[in-house]
TrEMBL record, chain A:
Coiled-coil regions, chain positions: none
Annotated InterPro entries: ABC_transporter_permease (IPR051393), MetI-like (IPR000515), MetI-like_sf (IPR035906)
Membrane spanning residue stretches: 20-42, 73-100, 107-131, 151-171, 214-238, 258-284
Keywords: Cell membrane, Membrane, Transmembrane, Transmembrane helix, Transport
Family (UniProt): Belongs to the binding-protein-dependent transport system permease family.
Protein name per its UniProtKB record: ABC transporter
Subcellular locations according to the entry: Cell membrane
One BP annotation, GO: transmembrane transport
Species, as recorded: Streptomyces fumanus
CDD domains xref list: TM_PBP2
UniProtKB/TrEMBL annotation, chain B:
Keywords, ordered alphabetically: Signal
PANTHER family: ARABINOSE-BINDING PROTEIN-RELATED, BLR3389 PROTEIN
Signal peptide positions (record): 1-22
SUPFAM superfamilies: Periplasmic binding protein-like II
Protein name: Solute-binding protein
């Protein structure tokens, strides 16, 4: 504040910047670091969530690491992550490129595509659950046999539905990122390519995609780390079912902690979740090269 | 540039969490103020009766009010545990008694009401004696029984039975014989809200009782080693899988939730012929099914015997009552209001009448005349008989067991119904949590 009043404008980046970070830091420490330490401590205890907390060493960790439910949940989480990435990325890139055009109808379509992002995950899950109900849903109502499958009652189908709904919800967001990325690409590159006789497809693969490298990394990081914490949507849609077909790690943690009253093992899973998330974020940063942050063309 | 992005990301990461946390906090009851708080389940028609009792009490006691909040069934089971653990419990805790109440009592989270019931013996004497079993932990009473007795009943759609020309089943073999007949007509033999899990559990409760007698599950409660591997238990588990394999349940049952009443709708719309469900279903069928109940479409019976089984066919399972406990963390003022509500606000004449109108049997003694005069007299008399003449009234398993054991049970029941584990694997998984 003092920099704004009276004094001649002298740049003091080193003393001003930390102050700017303060609000974020307070939020981060209060809502991420402190709970994280608490969870780490809880993972070495036995607690039913109601009575007293008893320290119990590695009991919870042993219980979690020997439970076949953990590798299964990890596998499901990984599958959701991989498949939803593989579905969302091409769709978002193509839509993003399409919407980056300047025509008016594209702007109108862009607004329409954006709608799913404005709905809450819970609302989306409830709506899809009702639409996909095998007896009272869309298929049964319109008497379309192809649509009246047991969407959420069969392991493979339920998994596909989860990926579909997740993609439906988040493709607009990533489209937006790519749209911004594409618009940052200098038009001169395309003009040069046109003179060289490159067609649209060739331009896309030789200019657009390489130029979007850092946008892809940003978008993928958000997708991958975000998919680790998918909870609300899956919880309402399938509750991890049928059986444990869609029981991702976050859901497994919730069920152990709050339904089975095993806070110790649930905390151990939470720690695993954090470690996996950090490892993935780090890995993606490495893939992008160390100077990813310095690039000017990465866009948003 | 780099910094502002990080700030944004920090905010993006932090804000939803803080909003979510604030959301949790604000819905928890504050300890300030003299009013007592009371959480219970929503869903009509029951919700209206509960709210009516609170409203009536508040009208009579303007300076010692009760503030009520409602929750969905499955959401409530989690919410109330979290709230109690966090010291944010409502003054009056609505529940099912049994194993969950035991964990509250052992953690010292609920008031011991034994001496209060001694002082107010008129309250105790006015209620079904059988309702106190699930309110009692180690000889002490920790909850006031309330509301209605809810045995699990086998409902059937008479119109569908007439159309197919079938008779209600008198035995398990009859059930298995009915399955292909209904399936041939494109009608599901049984409605089931399988995603809710406890709905599937009711099938096992009856099969265990009919095949092995009540001592079969009692052995689990008493912590007997390998109680789930008893040959009778394995037979019961195999039988339920036989029914699944024969397409006994509605297509897509694993994705149907009971909280949405979609399973109920299957029965009154005639998409399913039968349904095993709690006594509360009658009220739902009556409220949602148009003229289904009033035109005599709804049939009901106790679960039929299984050939060669040891259980008494009069036995039933379900909820002997609902239960109200008082949080030990509440202020003295709030506790006083809660106790006063127990004595003068719970199961008063108006509430009793409303329960009866909804087709439920309140756990209050001396209501025979009211029951007989009701438009649902037949069903009420039936429920009353099932509840009072049962040789054994077993408590719902997920409520009788501790939350930890119950969660393992429910998880494995779903897998059993999915046919993804065998009866032997089921037994092994559950033997591992006996006594936990």
């Amino acid at each position: 504040m003092s920099a704004l009043t009276g004094r001649p404008p002298r740049r003091e980046p080193r003393s001003v910047l930390p102050w700017l970070a303060a609000p974020a830091l307070v939020v981060f420490v209060g809502f991420a670091v402190i709970p994280l330490i608490g969870v780490f401590a809880l993972s070495f205890t036995t607690w039913d969530g109601i009575g007293a907390i008893h320290p119990s060493g590695l009991t919870s960790w042993r219980a979690v690491l020997t439970d076949p439910g953990l590798p299964h949940a990890l596998w499901v989480t990984f599958l959701v992550m991989a498949v939803s990435w593989a579905v969302q990325t091409p769709l978002s890139v193509l839509l993003g490129v399409f919407l980056a055009g300047r025509q008016r109808y594209r702007a109108v379509l862009g607004v329409v595509y954006f709608v799913p992002l404005m709905l809450s995950s819970a609302a989306i899950a409830i709506a899809y659950k009702a639409l996909l109900d095998p007896n009272f849903g869309l298929g049964a109502g319109l008497k379309i046999d192809a649509l009246s499958k047991d969407w959420l009652g069969r392991p493979g189908l339920a998994f596909a539905v989860v990926v579909f709904v997740v993609s439906w919800q988040f493709v607009p967001f990533h489209t937006l990122i790519y749209q911004g990325g594409v618009q940052q690409i200098p038009a001169s590159l395309y003009e040069a390519a046109q003179i060289d006789g490159a067609g649209r497809v060739r331009q896309f693969f030789s200019i657009t995609l390489p130029q979007l490298k850092y946008t892809v990394i940003t978008s993928s990081t958000l997708m991958v780390v975000g998919s680790l914490t998918f909870f609300d949507l899956i919880f309402i849609l399938t509750e991890g079912g049928p059986g444990d077909a869609t029981r991702v790690l976050a859901l497994d943690m919730y069920k152990r902690g709050f339904q089975a009253s095993l806070m110790g093992p649930a905390s151990a899973i939470a720690v695993i979740l954090v470690l996996v998330g950090l490892a993935l974020a780090l890995l993606l940063r490495r893939l992008g090269g160390r100077d990813a942050g310095a690039s000017q063309l990465e866009g948003a | 540039m780099a910094l502002s992005r990080r700030t944004l990301l920090g905010l993006a990461a932090g804000v939803p969490v803080s909003v979510a946390l604030a959301g949790c906090g604000s819905s928890g009851p504050g300890k300030s103020g003299g009013a007592a708080t009371y959480w219970y389940l929503n869903g009509q028609p029951q919700e209206g009766v509960r709210a009516g009792a609170v409203d009536a009490y508040n009208k009579a006691h303007p300076d010692g009010r009760i503030n009520d909040t409602t929750f969905q069934n499955d959401a409530y089971k989690t919410k109330i545990k979290t709230a109690i653990g966090a010291g944010q419990a409502p003054t009056i805790i609505w529940g099912w008694g049994g194993g969950t109440l035991r964990t509250y009592a052992q953690a010292g989270q609920v008031e011991d009401l034994t001496s209060w019931f001694d002082e107010h013996s008129e309250v105790k004497k006015s209620l079904f004696p059988s309702s106190f079993g699930a309110a009692t932990v180690d000889g002490k009473i920790y909850a006031m029984p309330c509301e209605t007795v809810q045995p699990i009943i086998l409902y059937y759609n008479k119109k569908v039975f007439d159309r197919v020309g079938a008779e209600p089943p008198k035995s398990w073999d009859d059930i298995m014989a009915l399955v292909p007949r209904f399936n041939a007509k494109g009608i599901a033999p049984f409605a089931l809200g399988g995603q809710s899990r406890w709905t599937n559990m009711m099938w096992l409760e009856f099969l265990f009782d009919r095949i092995g007698g009540p001592e079969l599950f009692q052995a689990v409660i008493e912590g007997e080693k390998n109680a789930w591997s008893h040959p009778d238990a394995l037979t019961a588990l195999a039988k339920v899988q036989d029914l699944v394999k024969a397409d006994g349940f509605i297509k897509g049952f694993s994705s149907i939730t009971a909280d949405s009443n979609a399973d109920q709708a299957l029965l009154y719309t005639g998409k399913a012929a039968m349904m095993l469900h709690g006594a509360w279903s009658y009220g739902i069928q009556q409220a949602d099914g148009g003229d289904f109940v009033s035109s005599g479409g709804l049939g009901y019976m106790n679960f039929p015997p299984v050939e060669g089984g040891k259980g008494d066919p009069s036995d039933t399972v379900g909820n002997p009552a609902q239960y109200l406990s008082i949080s030990s963390k509440a202020s003295a003022e709030q506790k006083k209001i809660a106790k006063d509500f127990f004595a003068t606000g719970v199961l008063q004449d108006q509430e009793v009448k409303k329960w009866i109108d909804n087709g439920s049997v309140p756990i209050k003694l001396g209501t025979e005349k009211l029951l007989a005069a009701s438009k649902s007299a037949d069903f009420l008399q039936f429920t009353y008989d099932v509840a009072s003449k049962a040789k054994v009234f077993g408590q719902s398993w997920d409520q009788a067991l501790s939350p930890t054991a119950a969660e393992t049970l429910l998880d494995n029941i779903v897998k059993l119904f999915q046919l993804s584990i065998s009866p032997k694997q089921f037994a092994a998984n559950l033997n591992a949590v006996i006594g936990k």
